[in-house]
Amino acid sequence: MAKKEEQAEPQPLPSPRLLPWHSAAIGQLRQAWTANRLPHAILVQGAEGLGTESFAAWLAAAVLCEKSVDGALEVCGACASCALIKAGSHPDLYWVAPEADKTQLSVDQVRAACEELSKTSFRQGYKVAIIEPAHQMTPGAANSVLKTLEEPSKGSLLVLLTSRPSGLLPTVRSRCQKLTITRPSTADAMAWLQQESGKAVSPALLEFSGGAPLKALAYADGAFDALNQHMQKSLRDLLSGDADVTQVAAEWEKDALIDRLIWLDLWLSALARTGIAGSDDRVTFPGGPAHLPSPSRPLNISALYSMVDRTRALKAQLARTALQRELAVESWLIALLEVLAPGKAPVARAS
Ligand SMILES: [Zn+2]
């Protein structure tokens, strides 16, 4: 595939793979294909951890597969086109992702893919471009896409992938057919996780993963337990005075900060619910009462819920902007201490 030519070490592309919770979306696409009504542009929206990349890879492979031409949309795995996909060298597929060390998709990258879509197919079939994550396009890149959406070429398919549709221009969104990948039910997700990992998985892990099975699977091999233990230790050390906010913020910032904030969101929510229920020591997320640090009692429920809001706001901010992460986490930790151990919190550092 002609992808990211300037990049020194291209990342391997996602392999086409359908997962059980993709079936509704695939059903819609197959119907459109059979009716000869496949749109020129599809916006695939779905949370991280739902395999939207492998879904898009399947869609591209199926549209290009020789078997699909006169029949149902499928990936036969045996034709010349499928062989090229497997080898990662299909000339009619363009996969645009951020270059190494960058988060945004540049105008040059996106424009090049859009130009390719307007040319004739090398293999007398479709031309497909996949842009992910589409909400990370620079304004210039988004304008290139807009032009392509306004004047689509025959036999071209543009697939935009996003976990944050609100991060796209409304004019881009409105010109694409939307295809939403939804989370499976908890029961289906748990069954799938058990099958894939070969063992029973804690429901707390799926909750932590926001119901996204692939994320839960990635954490199932002991990584979730390690995160749990580390978070509990950090909080215990902080409350007992064995660690200060600067140390803890630096440690969290180094590794899996967003996932730590998700953990904290669930932990604080569980703590607040516990306070309301009046069962002082019973926090069910994630490790049980024995592992939890013991904040001062009684708990200030409304302050705990404010911390939940603050945690979510910080997470959203970190995803959107280049904050001074360590400093932002430090002031969050100071606020947490004020809630959990009033009177012990240090004064905020001037930022
Ligand atoms: Zn094929």
Please tell me about this protein's structure.
By secondary structure, the protein is of the alpha/beta class. It folds into 2 domains: 161 residues, P-loop containing nucleotide triphosphate hydrolases (Rossmann fold), CATH 3.40.50; 119 residues, Zinc Finger, Delta Prime, domain 3. The protein is 49% helix and 7% strand. The protein has a 5-stranded parallel β-sheet with strand order 2-3-4-1-5, sandwiched between helices. Strand 3, helix 5 and strand 4 form a beta-alpha-beta unit. Helix 12 runs antiparallel to helix 13. The longest helix has 21 residues. The protein is elongated and about 70 Å long. It starts with 22 loop residues before the first helix and ends in an 11-residue tail after the last helix. Zinc ion binds next to helix 3.
If helices are DSSP runs of H or I spanning 4 or more residues, what is the number of helices?
14
CATH class of the largest domain: Alpha Beta
> Low-confidence segments, ≥5 residues, pLDDT <50?
2-8, 287-291
According to CATH, the homologous superfamily of the largest domain is: P-loop containing nucleotide triphosphate hydrolases
Number of strands: 5
User: Mind describing the biggest β-sheet?
Assistant: 5 strands, parallel
C-alpha-based Rg, rounded: 24 Å
